[in-house]
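Lecture 7 notes: from sequence to structure.

We start with a single chain of 235 residues. Read the sequence below before looking at the structure.
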Amino acid sequence: MKQEYQDLILQACGASKMSVGANIQPLWSGYGKIIRVHLEGSDRPSVVVKHVKFPNDTERTDHSHMRKAKSYHIESHWYKNYSTKPSCRIPACLATHSCGEEMLLVLEDLDAAGFDQRRTSVKDREIRVCLRWLAHFHALFLGVDPEGLWPVGTYWHLETRPDELESMEDGKLKTAAGDIDSTLNECHFKTIVHGDAKLANFCFTQGGRDVAAVDFHNRTTKNLFGQTRNKFERQ
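Now the structure, written as C-alpha coordinates:
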Protein backbone atom coordinates (compact mmCIF):
# COMPACT_ATOMS: atom_id res chain seq x y z
CA MET A 1 0.00 0.00 0.00
CA LYS A 2 1.27 3.46 -0.92
CA GLN A 3 2.69 5.53 1.91
CA GLU A 4 0.18 8.34 1.29
CA TYR A 5 -2.66 5.85 1.79
CA GLN A 6 -1.10 4.57 5.00
CA ASP A 7 -0.74 8.15 6.26
CA LEU A 8 -4.39 8.84 5.41
CA ILE A 9 -5.57 5.79 7.37
CA LEU A 10 -3.39 6.58 10.37
CA GLN A 11 -4.57 10.17 10.51
CA ALA A 12 -8.25 9.30 10.03
CA CYS A 13 -8.14 6.72 12.82
CA GLY A 14 -5.81 8.54 15.21
CA ALA A 15 -3.50 5.52 15.09
CA SER A 16 0.25 5.34 15.57
CA LYS A 17 0.84 2.19 13.56
CA MET A 18 -0.99 -0.06 11.10
CA SER A 19 -0.59 -3.41 9.44
CA VAL A 20 -2.43 -4.83 6.46
CA GLY A 21 -4.42 -7.92 7.32
CA ALA A 22 -6.38 -10.39 5.26
CA ASN A 23 -8.04 -9.70 1.95
CA ILE A 24 -11.77 -9.73 2.60
CA GLN A 25 -12.77 -9.97 -1.05
CA PRO A 26 -11.83 -8.73 -4.53
CA LEU A 27 -13.96 -6.09 -6.18
CA TRP A 28 -15.97 -7.09 -9.23
CA SER A 29 -14.27 -7.24 -12.63
CA GLY A 30 -10.78 -6.77 -11.20
CA TYR A 31 -11.38 -3.23 -9.95
CA GLY A 32 -9.47 -3.60 -6.69
CA LYS A 33 -10.02 -5.26 -3.35
CA ILE A 34 -11.38 -4.90 0.17
CA ILE A 35 -8.90 -5.48 2.99
CA ARG A 36 -8.84 -5.35 6.77
CA VAL A 37 -6.25 -3.07 8.35
CA HIS A 38 -5.17 -3.59 11.98
CA LEU A 39 -4.37 -0.53 14.07
CA GLU A 40 -2.27 0.35 17.09
CA GLY A 41 -2.67 3.45 19.26
CA SER A 42 -6.29 3.93 18.17
CA ASP A 43 -9.64 3.33 19.86
CA ARG A 44 -10.45 1.17 16.83
CA PRO A 45 -8.69 -2.19 16.65
CA SER A 46 -9.20 -2.37 12.90
CA VAL A 47 -10.85 -0.75 9.88
CA VAL A 48 -11.98 -1.99 6.50
CA VAL A 49 -10.40 -0.37 3.45
CA LYS A 50 -11.93 -0.52 0.00
CA HIS A 51 -9.15 0.14 -2.50
CA VAL A 52 -10.47 0.79 -6.01
CA LYS A 53 -7.92 0.60 -8.81
CA PHE A 54 -9.06 0.61 -12.43
CA PRO A 55 -7.51 -2.18 -14.52
CA ASN A 56 -4.75 -1.01 -16.87
CA ASP A 57 -6.25 -2.79 -19.88
CA THR A 58 -9.71 -1.24 -19.52
CA GLU A 59 -11.10 0.68 -22.47
CA ARG A 60 -11.92 4.05 -20.92
CA THR A 61 -14.80 4.76 -23.30
CA ASP A 62 -16.41 1.38 -22.72
CA HIS A 63 -19.98 1.72 -21.41
CA SER A 64 -19.48 -0.93 -18.72
CA HIS A 65 -16.27 0.68 -17.42
CA MET A 66 -17.81 4.14 -17.31
CA ARG A 67 -20.74 2.80 -15.28
CA LYS A 68 -18.42 1.03 -12.83
CA ALA A 69 -16.20 4.11 -12.41
CA LYS A 70 -19.21 6.32 -11.78
CA SER A 71 -20.57 3.78 -9.29
CA TYR A 72 -17.48 4.04 -7.11
CA HIS A 73 -17.56 7.84 -7.17
CA ILE A 74 -21.22 7.74 -6.18
CA GLU A 75 -20.46 5.29 -3.37
CA SER A 76 -17.87 7.69 -1.99
CA HIS A 77 -20.36 10.57 -2.21
CA TRP A 78 -23.00 8.44 -0.50
CA TYR A 79 -20.80 7.62 2.47
CA LYS A 80 -19.67 11.23 2.89
CA ASN A 81 -23.11 12.83 2.63
CA TYR A 82 -25.92 10.38 3.36
CA SER A 83 -24.64 7.70 5.73
CA THR A 84 -25.24 9.24 9.17
CA LYS A 85 -28.78 7.99 9.82
CA PRO A 86 -28.73 6.18 13.22
CA SER A 87 -31.80 3.94 12.76
CA CYS A 88 -30.18 2.12 9.83
CA ARG A 89 -26.84 0.71 10.90
CA ILE A 90 -24.11 0.96 8.29
CA PRO A 91 -20.32 1.30 8.61
CA ALA A 92 -19.12 4.78 9.52
CA CYS A 93 -17.04 6.44 6.82
CA LEU A 94 -13.74 7.60 8.31
CA ALA A 95 -12.00 8.91 5.18
CA THR A 96 -12.21 8.99 1.40
CA HIS A 97 -9.53 9.72 -1.17
CA SER A 98 -9.51 9.86 -4.96
CA CYS A 99 -6.49 10.27 -7.19
CA GLY A 100 -6.44 9.46 -10.89
CA GLU A 101 -7.23 5.78 -11.42
CA GLU A 102 -7.46 4.94 -7.72
CA MET A 103 -9.92 5.53 -4.90
CA LEU A 104 -9.77 4.70 -1.21
CA LEU A 105 -12.62 4.32 1.28
CA VAL A 106 -11.76 3.86 4.95
CA LEU A 107 -14.74 2.35 6.75
CA GLU A 108 -15.62 1.16 10.23
CA ASP A 109 -14.99 -2.54 10.72
CA LEU A 110 -18.45 -3.93 11.46
CA ASP A 111 -16.94 -7.17 12.76
CA ALA A 112 -15.22 -5.20 15.52
CA ALA A 113 -18.52 -3.41 16.24
CA GLY A 114 -20.29 -6.69 16.91
CA PHE A 115 -21.84 -7.29 13.49
CA ASP A 116 -19.57 -10.22 12.74
CA GLN A 117 -22.10 -12.83 11.63
CA ARG A 118 -22.80 -13.68 8.00
CA ARG A 119 -25.63 -15.88 6.78
CA THR A 120 -26.04 -18.16 3.79
CA SER A 121 -29.61 -18.92 4.91
CA VAL A 122 -31.95 -17.18 7.34
CA LYS A 123 -34.88 -17.90 9.62
CA ASP A 124 -38.05 -15.84 9.81
CA ARG A 125 -36.73 -13.68 12.64
CA GLU A 126 -33.63 -12.71 10.67
CA ILE A 127 -35.69 -11.95 7.58
CA ARG A 128 -37.85 -9.63 9.68
CA VAL A 129 -34.72 -7.89 11.02
CA CYS A 130 -33.55 -7.21 7.47
CA LEU A 131 -36.98 -6.03 6.36
CA ARG A 132 -37.12 -3.71 9.36
CA TRP A 133 -33.76 -2.26 8.34
CA LEU A 134 -35.04 -1.68 4.80
CA ALA A 135 -38.29 -0.15 6.03
CA HIS A 136 -36.42 2.35 8.22
CA PHE A 137 -34.06 3.14 5.37
CA HIS A 138 -36.87 3.76 2.87
CA ALA A 139 -38.84 5.86 5.37
CA LEU A 140 -35.85 8.05 6.25
CA PHE A 141 -35.19 8.97 2.64
CA LEU A 142 -38.75 9.20 1.33
CA GLY A 143 -38.93 12.32 -0.82
CA VAL A 144 -35.25 13.20 -0.31
CA ASP A 145 -33.52 14.75 -3.33
CA PRO A 146 -30.72 12.29 -4.27
CA GLU A 147 -28.17 14.96 -5.14
CA GLY A 148 -24.95 13.35 -6.34
CA LEU A 149 -26.47 9.86 -6.51
CA TRP A 150 -27.96 7.90 -9.38
CA PRO A 151 -31.08 9.74 -10.53
CA VAL A 152 -32.75 6.37 -11.18
CA GLY A 153 -31.48 3.15 -9.79
CA THR A 154 -31.37 -0.56 -9.03
CA TYR A 155 -30.20 -3.06 -11.61
CA TRP A 156 -33.58 -3.13 -13.21
CA HIS A 157 -34.19 0.14 -15.04
CA LEU A 158 -34.03 0.16 -18.78
CA GLU A 159 -31.39 2.82 -19.36
CA THR A 160 -28.63 0.66 -17.85
CA ARG A 161 -29.60 -2.49 -19.73
CA PRO A 162 -29.64 -1.70 -23.49
CA ASP A 163 -27.56 -4.78 -24.34
CA GLU A 164 -29.81 -7.11 -22.35
CA LEU A 165 -32.94 -5.63 -23.96
CA GLU A 166 -31.48 -6.08 -27.42
CA SER A 167 -30.62 -9.73 -26.72
CA MET A 168 -34.16 -10.61 -25.59
CA GLU A 169 -36.34 -12.63 -27.90
CA ASP A 170 -39.15 -10.65 -29.49
CA GLY A 171 -42.32 -10.93 -27.46
CA LYS A 172 -44.82 -9.14 -25.25
CA LEU A 173 -42.32 -8.40 -22.46
CA LYS A 174 -39.75 -6.86 -24.78
CA THR A 175 -42.44 -4.80 -26.50
CA ALA A 176 -43.78 -3.56 -23.14
CA ALA A 177 -40.35 -2.82 -21.61
CA GLY A 178 -40.46 0.90 -22.38
CA ASP A 179 -43.94 1.36 -20.92
CA ILE A 180 -43.04 -0.62 -17.79
CA ASP A 181 -39.92 1.50 -17.27
CA SER A 182 -41.88 4.74 -17.73
CA THR A 183 -44.54 3.64 -15.22
CA LEU A 184 -41.92 2.95 -12.56
CA ASN A 185 -40.02 6.19 -13.19
CA GLU A 186 -43.19 8.30 -13.00
CA CYS A 187 -44.29 6.86 -9.65
CA HIS A 188 -45.20 9.63 -7.18
CA PHE A 189 -43.72 8.16 -3.99
CA LYS A 190 -39.96 7.76 -4.35
CA THR A 191 -37.11 7.17 -1.97
CA ILE A 192 -33.43 6.27 -1.85
CA VAL A 193 -32.91 2.51 -2.00
CA HIS A 194 -29.99 0.24 -1.21
CA GLY A 195 -30.26 -1.34 -4.64
CA ASP A 196 -28.63 -4.71 -3.94
CA ALA A 197 -30.30 -5.84 -0.73
CA LYS A 198 -29.24 -9.47 -0.90
CA LEU A 199 -28.31 -11.58 2.08
CA ALA A 200 -24.57 -11.30 1.41
CA ASN A 201 -24.77 -7.55 2.06
CA PHE A 202 -26.22 -7.86 5.57
CA CYS A 203 -24.03 -8.30 8.67
CA PHE A 204 -25.71 -9.77 11.77
CA THR A 205 -25.01 -9.62 15.48
CA GLN A 206 -24.77 -12.82 17.51
CA GLY A 207 -28.19 -14.43 17.54
CA GLY A 208 -29.35 -12.40 14.55
CA ARG A 209 -31.24 -9.81 16.60
CA ASP A 210 -29.74 -6.80 14.83
CA VAL A 211 -28.27 -6.14 11.41
CA ALA A 212 -26.17 -3.66 9.46
CA ALA A 213 -25.92 -3.27 5.69
CA VAL A 214 -22.93 -2.81 3.39
CA ASP A 215 -22.08 -2.43 -0.30
CA PHE A 216 -23.89 0.74 -1.36
CA HIS A 217 -21.71 1.50 -4.38
CA ASN A 218 -23.89 -0.05 -7.05
CA ARG A 219 -27.33 1.51 -6.91
CA THR A 220 -27.93 3.90 -4.04
CA THR A 221 -30.41 6.17 -5.74
CA LYS A 222 -33.91 7.60 -5.96
CA ASN A 223 -36.47 5.14 -7.21
CA LEU A 224 -39.88 3.60 -6.66
CA PHE A 225 -40.63 3.19 -2.94
CA GLY A 226 -39.89 -0.38 -1.94
CA GLN A 227 -38.63 -1.35 -5.39
CA THR A 228 -35.30 -2.68 -4.12
CA ARG A 229 -35.05 -6.24 -5.33
CA ASN A 230 -34.09 -8.42 -2.36
CA LYS A 231 -32.81 -11.89 -3.01
CA PHE A 232 -33.48 -13.75 0.21
CA GLU A 233 -35.53 -16.31 -1.68
CA ARG A 234 -32.54 -17.12 -3.87
CA GLN A 235 -29.97 -17.66 -1.11
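Residues 124-234 form one domain. Keep this in mind for problem set 3.
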